[in-house]
């Protein structure tokens, strides 16, 4: 029975690993997520043997071993949402979040068009998750959102999805090891 369960776990991991590249080709964020998930799953068996506490092991995986991969994925998600929001705000003539009201009335329409043009050329780097602005915003323009989103997305908060994945991968690795030791 233990051998059958181990084969089921191996088949599940293999299925996930084979499905990830196809998903990643369709969505750049999916590639970053697949890389973070693969890092967590790969680290789990080694960490499980070295760390008796599953909680400490999950924390070590998500905040140390796989921190770069998880951060890139989270940065991509955060910056994609931020860019979408900034574009919506720039399109809304009644938006109070844009600092257009600080500019003289006769320059506000021109300024809005410059902002829209800058956001239209902006993109989120699919490798690092960083927001790239090839055309800088006008010097008279600023938004609180851009600064706040960068601060919060860089805060080092670990997504609970990856912590849960690490905990599950550690638990699976521990159960597989204990079953293997028990069948000897």
Low-pLDDT runs of 5+ residues are: 4-25, 153-157
Roughly what fraction of the amino acids lie in strands?
A: under 5%
Number of domains: 1
Structural Rg: 22 Å
Our count of helices gives 7
The protein's oligomeric status is: single chain
The helical percent reads over 70%
Q: On the 0-100 scale, what is the average pLDDT?
A: 78
Distance from N terminus to C terminus (CA atoms, Å) equals: 13 Å
* Main β sheet profile: 2 strands, antiparallel
Label the overall shape. Answer: rod-shaped
Structural class: mainly alpha
Q: What is the β-strand count?
A: 2
Strand order in space, largest sheet: 1-2
Tell me the series of helices and strands, N- to C-terminal: HHHHHEEHH
Task: Describe what is shown at a glance.
This protein is an all-alpha fold and 184 residues long. It has seven helices and two strands; from the N terminus they run αααααββαα.
Describe it for me?
The structure is a single chain. This protein has one domain. It has seven helices and two strands, in the order αααααββαα. It has helices at residues 2-26, 28-50, 54-65, 67-91, 108-121, 144-153, 160-182; strands at 123-124, 131-132. The protein has a two-stranded antiparallel sheet with strand order 1-2. Helix 1 (2-26) packs antiparallel against helix 7, helix 3 crosses helix 7 (160-182) and helix 4 (67-91) runs antiparallel to helix 5 (108-121). The longest helix has 25 residues, at 2-26.
